[in-house]
Amino acid sequence: MIIKKTKLLIFIMALQVFAVSFSQTKKNRADLLKARAKSKKEIDSFVKIDFLKKKYQYLDSNFKIKIDSTTFNKAVKKYNYYPKRIKTYRDSLSVILTYELKSFHGSRIAGSRITYQWKKIGYYIWENELTAKKLGNELGFTKPYRFYEFLIDDAKRDAKKRAILTTLKNKLPLAVKDTIDIFPNKRFLKFTFKTSPQRIQDFKNYRKAKNKHKH
């Protein structure tokens, strides 16, 4: 009889533990979904901002940093950045943008547009960095990200742009060229970026160098 009561007590306790655990899991899941929704809303709001036109308190019109050391150190401390890991302009820019925009998401989005490189444009259109910059400059773009926006915008049916994309399409292997169109521009360029021979080679070289330094 005592054994049966003991087993029953253990069973009831197990059910209670399970109930508490299940309840906590539901709460954790609800909190996670809420956090994700909040994060998505925040990201969506920042994506709509033109960060290349925005006036910044701690950056000049050419995005050069203009901040005193006291304020910078305050930003580092407030957002838990590691001082020893802040070595480049991009590192410092991340700190400043996070502090000014009060958001890690905003900092990431703004930083990626401000530091966008002609080399990356080259990956999209299968050209070297100098040629990519020359093509962009000829169309009046001094900032790489502006040229990228132009290239992916289907509403911009500029003849020179079409020539660039048509030339790019003709560089694709025959087996692929006949199965893909330059419209929608963004989808086409996403494909060419992914399959860019130079990008693939550069990534292999990067991985090789990284692995070499580990030994």
Task: Explain this structure.
The longest helix has 46 residues, at 2-47. This protein has helices spanning 2-47, 69-78, 89-101, 104-114, 118-125, 129-138, 144-152, 159-171, 174-177, 185-195, 197-214. The protein is mainly alpha-helical. The chain is extended and about 85 Å long. The chain contains eleven helices and no strands. Helix 2 (69-78) crosses helix 3 (89-101).
Number of helices: 11
Which structural class best describes the helix and strand composition? mainly alpha
In quaternary terms, these chains amount to single chain
Overall mean confidence score, pLDDT: 91
Share of helical residues: over 70%
Question: Which residues sit in consecutive blocks of at least 5 with pLDDT less than 50?
Answer: none
Number of strands: 0
Ordered list of secondary-structure elements with their pairings:
Layout: H1 2-47, H2 69-78, H3 89-101, H4 104-114, H5 118-125, H6 129-138, H7 144-152, H8 159-171, H9 174-177, H10 185-195, H11 197-214
Helix pairs in contact: 1-4, 2-3, 3-4, 5-6
Summarize the structure.
The chain is mainly alpha-helical.
Features:
215 residues; 11 helices; 0% strand
